[in-house]
Structures are given as structure tokens and as C-alpha cells.
Design a protein that fits this description.
The complex is a heterodimer of chains A (179) and B (218). Chain A is built from seven helices and no strands. By secondary structure, chain A is mostly helical. In chain A, helix 1 crosses helix 3, helix 4 packs across helix 7 and helix 5 packs across helix 7. The longest helix of chain A is centred in the N-terminal third of the chain and has 25 residues. Chain A is globular and about 50 Å long. Chain B is built from six helices and six strands. Helix content of chain B is 57%, strand content 26%. In chain B, helix 2 packs across helix 3. The chains are: A mainly alpha (179), B alpha+beta (218). Chains A and B meet through helix 1, helix 2, helix 4, helix 5 and helix 7 of A and helix 1, helix 3 and helix 4 of B.
Chain lengths: 179, 218
Amino acid sequence: MVMNNNKLCTVKGREHFFVELYTKAFPAVARFIAQRGGSLEEAQDIFQDALVIYYEKVIAAPAEIIINEKAYVLGIAKNLWLQRYKVGSRNRPLNDLDTEALPDEQLATDKILKYLEAAGRKCMDLLKAYYYDGLSVSSVATLFGYSGIRSATVAKYKCLEKVRESVKQKSLHYADFIE
Amino acid sequence: MNNIKSIDDYLSGRMAPGDAFLFQANMLLKDTLMNDVEDQQKTYEIIRRYSRQSIKNEIIAAQKIIVAAPHYRGFMQRIARLFKNSNQLQLNIKTNIMNEEQMLKNQALIKHAYAAFNARDIDTILQVMHPNVKWSKAWEGDYATGHDDVRAYWERQWKEINPTVTPVGFRARENGTLEVEVDQLVKDLEGAVLFDGKVKHIYVINDGLLQQMDIELN
């Protein structure tokens, strides 16, 4: 994974990116959903999910591949709207769009996620920067204030181990996680 | 114990083919390694879900910035108008559906009333008339007002003429009145035809009661 777009490394950079996309692409998405009888809230919800998917595309591929980002975001939003409309359930979380997890596992994952958000936000953010945002180890080192690539790499594996350990423990006490 | 890195290399496809083969063999031999690989896969899934949620929160924050910023007010108003129109559209559709329902009810009401008129059954017609009904007196001019006035008018009329009226067309007018096209055959008491043609009866109907009737000649 290569980071193509340096402006997306930081929260501030992403904020700028999302605000710009909002002004550029949201009117078309809103019009599409309004014409189909959707509400402003539904349009915003669809648009948020569409931007998550668009963000994942941008960080996974060279940005210049996407010629018309407005049309691209509108395309994603249309698909999301049609999916929800067809399924009839308006409340499917984004996570289910391309993962098929068993309901029990899903429940356990949600529990672990809650625990980790509370206990180790810094670790999760570091792992996000590396595995999800696709930043290089050197970018991660700079962003998280490590002295160099080596210490950032060690931190990454330590965090990975910490989360994996939680997964293991929660899996052992699996019964505790089924309400 | 610490196989984090090797599992990471294996799952991300960074491991050299020979090493990967050896790794797979180890997995088959050691349950603990197999379990660790499974847990680590779950770990990546958790990271992905955490990350998506985190990005989504940033997007929601960006949206809040736009909603709150004064220089985006015009932008947000334009967006809001899209939904106002959409709501209006839905309202119009809803109203039209109601009108259609109403229209069918009113048609049935009118047909019922004309049938009673042709049968000279005044009581039945008065049941669907507003107590203060205004009824155009084609034959005498002006209006008959209220049940008694209408009854008296018809009784006078039927002593002189023998009308038969059949509704043949209905149209809801934009002002909310109902236009009924009527085949009107009027004979004198000896059976000679005095009038045979179409007229329009324009009704004001409220809550299932006839409130006013006017006549328009074609």
C-alpha cells in the first residue's frame, strides 16, 4: 500500500478533503435522493457512507485514476441508495456492505471494538494509519512522534499483539459476549 | 510466542514463497499457531471496522462544519429547498390520491341523488343535502335554500313538468367544485318533450353533503 495523497495523512487534511467533496458532490446526491422521496437525513447518511467508500478508493489507488470525483461519489451514493431501497432495511451498517460475518462473531467483534476504543485509542489509531489509511512506516513514525522507522515498527507490532490478545481473551470468554 | 510479525507477513503476502509453504505446514502441525492466525485475522477486521467508523466520524464532523458555517448558509438553503420540493411533491400526490377517493365517493353520492330524484323520492335526496343547501331553481330562477324550500320547489315543479336527469360525466374543477354533465329530458305532463339535451350541474360538496348546486347551460 502506498500513500498517494499526502494531504490525507492528517485529520486537518482529511477535513479539508471532505468539506470540499461535500460542497462539490452533495447537491447532486441530495437531488437524486429527494427525487426518490428520501429525506435530508437519509441523503446525509448515504453521503457519509459514500464518502467512506470513496476515501478507501482514493487511498488504495492513484488519485489521478478518478477523473470526475463528483460523478464517482454520486455513483457510489446511487448504488447505496438502491441497495437500501431494494433490501428495504434502511439501517444496515456500513460494515456489512462487503463483509459477511456470522451474527455471533459480529456481536463479539462489536464488544471487542468497544473495549479497544476505550482502552487503547492510540494503538487503534496507529494501526488504522498503517493498515487502513495505508501510510508508510516512516509517515506513521512522523505522525505519531516516534524517533524512527524501527521504533514505529516495534510499536506497530506491539499494538497488533495487544489487540490480538484482547481478541483471544474475548474469544475464550465467548459466552460473556453473547447477551 | 511472538509470531505477530511472521503472521503479519504471511497474511499480507509479504512472505517469500518457500517460507510461506513452511508456515502453512507449521499451521497444520500446531493448533496454537492456527489459533493465532485466526485471532490475527479477526484483529485486522477489528482494525478495519474501527478505521471505517473513525473516518465516518470525521466525515460527520466535516458535515457539521458546513451546516454551521455562515458562508455555507446559501448552499444549505439550496439543499433544503430540494427536500421542500420533494415534500411538496409527496403532499400533492397524497392530496391527489385523496381527491381520487373523494371523487369516487362524490360520484356515488350524485348518482344516488339523481336516481332518487327520478324516482321522485325527495326524502332520500334530502338525507344527502346540507340543512342550508342552496339549490339553483332553473325553472323559476334564484335559489331554493334549505330542505323545506327545496322540497316545496320540486313539488311545485312536478305539478307542471316531468324531468328526468341522468349524470353522464364527472370532472373535479380546480376550485374544488364538482362538475356533473347531465342528460336532461323534460316533458310536460302530457308527455311532449320540452327539452332534451345536456346541461352542467356544478356542485359544492362538503363532508358528503350537497351544499350548493348551480346550473351552466352549454
